[in-house]
Write a structure and sequence with these properties.
This protein is of the alpha/beta class and 303 residues long. Helix content is 37%, strand content 19%. The protein has a domain at 12-177 and 204-230 and 276-289: Rossmann fold, CATH 3.40.50.720. The protein has eleven helices and 14 strands.
Length: 303
């Protein structure tokens, strides 16, 4: 963006995926920060500020795009739903690419396009890279999720150059829901386990900081891809053991790696994946974490 030109004010924010795990927290933080939040819904609108869209067919109520100063896309089928059958893998890909393309093309068609498009992405872009420290400058990896993220981001890049594009690559969001739900349930029932070797790095971020980082990027001048991960890397064993300790539950079991390999791509990309992702880019934008360690992140939601 031209630093000498005044930045247009952002007051109305249109969110796709507002009712989800991250979306609910994001809407709360946006509202608290004084933004007017509009929502895209996949049904007949029933409340003020709701607009209908159908990501599969590529239709978006263009009134929403014309009114929005910013668009934030969180929509996509859950990767935590198992098993990843061939048809569900197609849904994981399609739900991300089709929805993102629909929004990018609607922004392109708009006579009054939004100032910024913040498009959800994932650290799965990097693939499993044991022994490497990965940053936002690191290359694409290999594997199913890496290929999904690449296609997802390519769809986002259809956004016109007049709209600032931010692709935020999210790690495991630590809280009561989302991908953390199975770990919470297993641990609460006393069967918390070391998963595989436990030495694999899992990039994580607290739910609060995930939403706060998105709001921060909305207000910033940053454009491009940025990883949303906590500043202190943690291994899978550190995360599962800390969760058990905070819940005052045992952590005795070991689930061997071969058991997860039987899950195919889901086991490799979700459990056995080793991604030591660090994000100096986010730090350089001036973002301040509330939860800097996995212990603090888990403390924030464990009663």
């Amino acid at each position: 963006m031209n630093e000498s030109a005044p930045r247009p004010p952002i007051s109305r924010v249109l969110v796709a995926g507002a009712s989800g795990y991250i979306g609910t927290e994001l809407v709360a933080q946006l509202t608290a920060a004084g933004f007017e939040v509009m929502q895209l819904v996949r049904r007949e609108p029933t409340a003020e500020g709701e607009y209908e869209w159908d990501p599969r067919s590529g239709t978006v109520d263009e009134r929403a795009i014309e009114r929005a100063d910013a668009v934030i896309n969180l929509a996509g089928a859950s990767t935590g739903k198992l098993p990843w059958t061939p048809s569900y893998k197609r849904e994981i890909l399609r739900s991300r690419v089709d929805g993102t393309r629909a929004l990018a093309e609607a922004i392109r068609r708009a006579s009054n396009p939004p100032v910024v498009f913040l498009s959800g992405s994932a650290v799965g872009y990097f693939g499993s890279r044991p022994g490497e420290v990965l940053t936002d400058e690191s290359s694409k990896g290999t594997g199913f999720l890496s290929d999904v993220v690449y296609a997802w981001e390519q769809a986002a890049r259809l956004t016109p150059s007049t709209t600032r594009l931010v692709m935020f690559r999210t790690g495991i969001v630590v809280g009561r829901g989302g991908a953390f739900t199975p770990l919470n349930l297993l641990t609460r029932f006393g069967v918390g386990s070391r998963l595989g070797s436990g030495a694999q790095y899992w990039p994580w971020i607290s739910l609060h900081d995930e939403a706060a980082a998105i709001v921060h990027l909305l207000r910033s001048d940053f454009a491009g891809a940025v990883s949303l991960v906590g500043p202190t890397p943690a291994t899978a064993e550190t995360i599962t053991k800390t969760l058990a300790q905070k819940m005052k539950r045992p952590h005795w079991f070991v689930v061997p790696s071969f058991a997860f390999r039987m899950l195919g791509d889901a086991g490799k990309d979700l459990i056995l994946v080793d991604e030591n992702v660090q994000s100096p880019t986010l730090a350089n934008t001036g973002f301040t974490f509330r939860h800097t360690t996995i212990e603090q992140a888990i403390d924030a939601f464990v009663e």
